[in-house]
Write a structure and sequence with these properties.
The structure is a single chain. It is built from no helices and 13 strands. By secondary structure, the chain is mainly β.
Length: about 190
């Protein structure tokens, strides 16, 4: 999936309403042609994700799926200021590693019913890479991480199928071998009350 985001202004937005938050797909050889960019002296961020669908639950005969990344996300900033020039950009996806962590609420109880979000520092896209579930004992695994600074967020359900994302901190990953990523969730999920 390829997503193009305008980096003009404070609010990052998709450059073109024909692109969804899930982007457009490359062809079988990995190519894609994007167009319709208004010329700009500010860069556009071209983000690439590769994932597969995973069944996470079955309820009342309905299959609930999540997209799980096969590679770490990658991106490139591109200046598109001349409508007569077609820019060629090559972005290479790489396999990342798994990061183990532990999350608890401020009262020391293992966090349950919330999910972790980890975006690379360069990520300025309105879509999410993935949501990493926290097990009932507070442990989680973030997959497909390349070395770099990550913005760690938490997604807290707020009822009626919606959720709220909160930025917690930035951290260089991976951590030293054997060290868990420690996360304190500022408020409890309604499911855990």
């Amino acid at each position: 999936n390829v997503i193009a985001t305008s980096l003009v202004g404070d609010r990052r937005q998709l450059f073109n309403s024909t692109m969804s938050l899930y982007g457009k797909k490359t062809d079988k050889k990995g190519y894609i042609l994007l167009g319709g960019f208004p010329p700009s002296a500010s860069p556009y961020l071209i983000t690439v994700l590769h994932s597969h669908e995973k069944t996470v639950s079955m309820k009342d005969g309905i299959r609930h799926i999540e997209n799980v990344p096969n590679y770490a996300p990658a991106g490139a900033n591109v200046i598109l200021n001349d409508p007569e020039v077609v820019e060629n950009v090559e972005i290479t996806l790489q396999k990342g590693i798994k990061i183990k962590g532990y999350a608890e609420y401020v009262d020391g109880v293992p966090a349950d019913g919330v999910k972790i979000i980890a975006h690379p520092d360069w990520w300025h896209c309105n879509s999410y890479i993935g949501f990493w579930p926290i097990d009932p004992n507070g442990f989680f695994v973030i997959d497909q991480v390349l070395p770099g600074t990550y913005n760690i967020q938490v997604s807290i359900p707020s009822g009626q199928g919606s959720s709220t994302s909160k930025h917690l901190f930035s951290k260089y990953l991976p951590l030293p071998e054997g060290q868990l990523l420690q996360v304190t969730v500022p408020e409890k999920s309604p499911q855990s009350l």
